[in-house]
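so the lab meeting is tmrw and i was supposed to have these ready like two days ago... anyway. pasting both below. for each one the top line is the aa sequence and the line under it is the structure tokens. i havent really looked at them closely yet so no promises
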Amino acid sequence: MKILLIGGTGTISTAVTRRLISQGQELYLLNRGIRKDSPEGAREIICDIHNEKDASQKLNGMTFDAVADFIAYSQEDLERDYRLFAGTTKQFIFISSASAYQKPPTDYIITESTPLSNPFWEYSRKKAAGERYLMEKYTAEGFPITIVRPSHTYDERKVPVAVHGAKGSWQVIKRMLEGKPVIIPGDGTSLWTLTHNSDFAAGFTGLIGNPKALGQAVQIMTDERLTWNQIYETIAGAAGTELHAVHISSDFLAAAGKQYDFSGELLGDKAHTVVFDISKLRRMVPDFAPKITMVQGLRTTVQYVLTHTDCQHSDPEFDTWCDKIIDIRKKALAAL
């Protein structure tokens, strides 16, 4: 198949790119060409998709079996994609987000029919608006869309945690290694799902060119889950240290960490127990079977980050913020 990925070098899309190349697909990547380690086997179209005129010129005369946009975040982005690809692709795939589902949830089991309603996170509301726009185009005009909803997907370069600063999760790992307490939202017993990007790619590529996926929304993730306490214990163990956890309510963290948008990240996502039902994906992609368990993935990722200094981005501002929040909690308890 002739496939175009818009982006193709991010956490999720890199794994998709690798898998499509390994399958021998005719793969094109449209991006700004900033990354120098472009994968061999893909043909690059150097372009900023937000420059619609330039994109239109460089795509002129080209048709595809499938186009997937990994960097579309809003309805406006998708309106542009519709103008660029209507009539030139047999399938257009939008990568939405499981965070768009109803918050707080009325049922911990999440299916594709769970309402899209997240008042806490603008990012999620924009994804939902994009979905509605595409479904209207499919219903009214037959624009061949597929909507994909990933949850928390990670790769070997980023350790997934619940609370981190603007520079990523390394500072949390660093605090563990230094014997400092780390913040876990709530009481740490809510369930969460982490999906390795290679497992996501297996589900995603199974939807490409799949006629059953047209006009459908499909969530892609593992159906395994751990509590946040178990996730942090696993991370600390993989780093060869002990976990000193401090549990603080998500409401408090959202109010105290507005600069980090914890209202969206926690109240609109990670603070809630979720159990994803992926039976729809398995019906469409019968051989989908995640190969990397959450514990295996966490251990491998921690070891990779510990041995690659380019993944270690210190964040003194977040470190100071954590110390301050933990100290405030300690003083509040002492005053009782």
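ok protien two:
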Amino acid sequence: MAETRTSLEVIAPSVEEAIARGARELNLPEEALEVEILDEGSKGFFGLGSRQVRVRLTVRTTTVRPEEPTPVEKLPDVDDGDAVRITHETVEELLHRMGFQAQVEAHWGEVVPPGRIRPLLVNVSGDDLSILIGRQGETLSALQYITRLIVGKELKRPISVVIDVEGYRSRREQQLRRLARRMAEQAIETGRTMSLEPMPANERRIIHIELRENPKVDTQSIGEGDRRKVTIIPQ
């Protein structure tokens, strides 16, 4: 039987940041990961229209998970007021240009666990906003990506902006976590590998994280492009 290893796909502005993010998600040192660059990305024109890099990180077979989390250096936050104001104004302007009338609230999120980069959370509320979410949150992810580019350019540094519409992201995350646990139970009971439906990278990451501490299963992303999906492999 072929050996299976946990892998994680990460999208970030640079290869170095993608590796650092993946190491934090998997709670492993960077040297414990094999790196495969799937997309080198592009810088775009004047910082706009750029494409982030995409890498696949695979845990080396000799890796032993450390008992304590690897310390992560936290980047200093930009001025709280400026970041919130610029992000709020940017999202409002983008929604206006897209033809949406909605209420926008922006605020700093909590640092959980300590040492992670503090996210700036944006909540959008209003009527008939389902089209703003799109299929599997694709439109929402595009809005979030564009907002990060514009705000980061204005503040002259990367910033973690997370946009949600009417609580969609939190509901979807809970749904995916329940799905991951249910499919893992089926894989263990039947002894068969279970394949989930194709998902975007951020949703596949939720599945990997939810099951990474389960010693009875491994997870792996397979496929290419829009058909990429998570498989759950019983041990």
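from a quick look at the 2nd one: The beta strands are 7-12, 33-39, 53-59, 103-108, 120-125, 161-165, 194-195, 217-222, 229-234. Confidence is low (pLDDT under 50) at residues 62-78. will dig more after coffe
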